[in-house]
Amino acid sequence: MKLCKTCLTFLHHCTRINVPMRAISGFSSKTYDDWNKAVSDAEKIVGYPTSYMSLRCLISDEFSNVAMHLRKLVGTRHPLLKTARGLLYDGKQSTQTRGLIVLLIAKAAGPGPSELSKTREPDKVSGIYSSQRSLAEATEMIHTANLIHKGVVNLAEFSDSEDREKNDMEFGNKMAVLSGDFLLANACTELASLNNTKVVETMSFAITDLMEAEFTDLRDSGGECVLKRDIQFSDWIRQTYLSSGSLLARGCRSAVELADHTEDQKEAAASFGENMAYLQQMKTDLKPLFSRDNGGDDFSVTSAPVIKYLEQTPEERDRITALSTKDAQQIVSSIKTASVIDECYSLCYKYGDSAKKSLDVFPQTDAKSALINIVNATIRS
Asked: Which H/E stretch holds residue 201?
């Protein structure tokens, strides 16, 4: 894939942001190698590297024009720069795994049994339909568009004395909306080209859920996390499903739908994607507890350990809910004195086991083994 000079220059600036990679990852050398091996083996199975799949649109002249304007953000504190860097290296892996998982599910299910499926030829190398590859790319583009849109800054937080920075943030917001919309429009065009109304409907629900995730009672008007006093773990489940589970579950289900497989296989694929999302989010929520700064920028006041702590110690609800994400150290200190961490790790194994069990309906193949390896590598991370 050859990128235009403007895009390369912008991406070069983004990757020079001074953030220590090891500090971001929270991975030990062993678990990092396990993860990389699981992903590398999986990419070989699906036929080609899926790394930077969501950046395919950088080839286009349209995004070249956007990138030219994005360069103006270099040197500012707008979160869009961090997002751009994260697309190249998110601290855990150098690939976007949603599309990879969709492709692995497609190959694990195999060619469709119906006469309609037999009229289409899967790729002779990987055994995956071209429509399923398009779906995987669309899934990644939807995820990336959502990440970019989430980077919009609340300008009301800036005073009139901060005019210059406020102007930078306003310009960054416009670029976040423009580039996010561009990717989302391309994803929708890709989905429409599949000529499958069920898949289009399924994936449109995923987009709806991503938008709804930003307007729940766990978010304030500025998009910041809010810990309501009566919060329960079911709220975490719902928020995780809306923000990540729906897209992965519906993407996996659609991959099986495109091959005209049975309903139980579609449900199994969706179950794998949903449980995988819960596992990934739980691991993400746990990592800040072990960072050197006891939480840091990655800590969320509505993370699973916090909610589990409040369920275990209801007498602490008034004190903890009066705090915010900025008070991460106080919250983390309280959590570490309870048995919450062990409970959250147990849930990681539960979600991992549920994800692997859902694959029982598929025959034993390299693709199925690769999916299991990715689950295990995520648990160990």
From this structure: helix 197-212
| Per-residue pLDDT tens digits for 20-58 | 333 333 445 566 678 888 888 888 888 766 655 545 555
Contact between 168 and 73 under an 8 Å Cβ cutoff? The reply is: yes
Counting beta carbons within 10 angstroms of the beta carbon of residue 225, is it exposed (0 to 12), middle (13 to 18) or buried (19 or more)? middle
Residues 311/335, Cβ–Cβ less than 8 Å: no
Per DSSP, the three-state class of 225 is strand
Q: Which two tokens stand for residue 140?
A: 């990644």
Q: Which residue has the tokens 């580039």?
A: 179
What DSSP state is assigned to residue 245? I
Provide the 8-state DSSP code for 244: I
258 neighbors 199 (Cβ within 8 angstroms): yes
Determine the 3-state secondary structure of 219 from DSSP: strand
Contacts (Cβ under 8 Å, ≥6 apart) of 381 = 27, 31, 34, 35, 92, 283
Cβ atoms of 183 and 210 closer than 8 Å: no
Distance in angstroms (rounded) separating the CA atoms of residues 353 and 335:
26
Q: Return the CATH number at 284.
A: 1.10.600.10
CB 157 within 8 A of CB 104: no
The span from the CA of 296 to the CA of 334, in Å, is 15
CA distance linking residue 57 with residue 55, whole number of Å:
5
Q: How many domains does the chain have?
A: 1
The residue range of the domain holding 119 is: 5-19+27-380
Can you tell me the distance from the alpha carbon of 350 to that of 287, in angstroms, rounded to the nearest whole number? 18
Largest CA distance in the chain: 68
In terms of pTM, does the model score above 0.90?
A: no
φ/ψ (deg, to 5) at 193: -70, -10
Express each pLDDT in 315-367 by its tens digit: 999 888 887 777 888 888 888 878 899 999 999 999 999 999 999 999 999 99
Given a contact cutoff of 8 angstroms between Cβ atoms, the answer to whether 80 and 176 are in contact is yes
